[in-house]
Amino acid sequence: MTAVVRSLSTTSGADAAEWQARVHLAAAFRLANRAGWNEGIANHFSMIVPGTTDRFLLNPRELHFSEITASNLIVVDEKGNKLSGYGQVRAVAFYLHGRLHQALPNAACILHAHAPYSTAISCVKGGRLGTAHGIAMGIARLVCYDDEMQGPVNDSEADRLIRIVGPEKRIIFHSMHGMTTLGATVAEAYDHFYFAERMSQYTVLARQMGQPLHEVPETALRNYGNRDPGLEPSADVVHFNAMMRVLDRDEPDYKT
After folding, report:
1. In CATH, what number does 13-255 get?
2. What is the percent of the chain with per-residue pLDDT over 90, rounded to a whole number?
3. To the nearest whole number, what is the mean pLDDT of the chain?
4. Which helix (DSSP H) or strand (DSSP E) does residue 17 occupy?
5. What angle do CA 243, 177, 32 make, to 5 degrees?
6. Measured on CA atoms in the order 167, 169, 175, 180, is the torsion positive or negative?
7. Rounded to the nearest 10 degrees, what angle do helices 235-250 and 186-207 cross at?
8. Residue 14's pLDDT is what?
9. Which three-class secondary structure string do you get for 49-74?
10. Where exactly are the structural domains of the chain?
11. CB distance 91 to 97 below 8 Å
12. For residue 60, what are the contacts with CB-CB under 8 A and spacing of at least 6?
């Protein structure tokens, strides 16, 4: 996806690109908090600093998602060493982000959170999202499941997960641990997270009814493409723009 979500800075060049990335990532934190996806001050979102390959925006360890602004995001290297900003880096939390950013070309932005319904599915042995709702047509091919969480991530665990995700997947259900989404932009990663969590909610609630669930036909899953064909910008951009307008009204300080 090449569309720019919005121009949010009057500066130019690399500084403008980084500021826009900061604003978008700060918006994702605020939106996640409003949706109840985060767990206290835990969970991390990160993004490659535009124009670089080895610098990443990350939330400081001490801040709640509701406190994140464009300016208080910190910058780290691929090993999680802080390069600029105030606050601590929880190195164990960023470790996998750094590996995914470097290994997967479509992982410019990574959102990891313990949202209630997707995390509930990840807590079930062999838990799966299912295809009982039309949302599955947009995300089923993007989902992968890691059923072998072995504790803190090391090099071999990171390599194993990178193989599971591969070049095509964008949504990861981590056994006993929640969900991660990948995107070329913040808008894409947010859109994937929103709809995967929404589908998880439908799945959990529907299974409580004790009746057989529908399944979207495999042909529909296989042949589904752009959910808004013929319209520009893409659906993820339009979705994220709308959510940013909500923040502009209710929490405009995220841009500061």
Report:
1. 3.40.225.10
2. 82
3. 92
4. helix 13-35
5. 15
6. positive
7. 90
8. 66
9. CCCCCCCEEECCCCCCHHHCCCCCCE
10. 13-255
11. no
12. 72, 73, 74, 85, 86, 87, 88, 89
